[in-house]
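Aggregate trends can hide what the representation actually does to any particular protein. The sequence in question and its structure tokens are set out directly beneath this paragraph.
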Amino acid sequence: MSDVFDLVNAAFEYCGAAIIWLNIVQLAEDKQIKGIDWRVLVFWCIWGGWSVLYFSHLDQTHSFLASCVVLLADFVYMCQLCWYTLNKKQES
């Protein structure tokens, strides 16, 4: 039964990663940051890192792999935010 819970949780994690990637694609198109508080993303990156550790500890392979995908997406999004923030400051 724990495999079912692992698969359901992993499905939610993968959906979350897909939603983050929508933000990444949109930001790449817009090339500017508006209405994004970096602290929110930092929190979710920390949570994602914790999830990777937690699910590996629980031996929930599917959730572990899905949380790795979420963490990767969070990292890419954070890098984008840093990139566009630095470029905006250089243009000023």
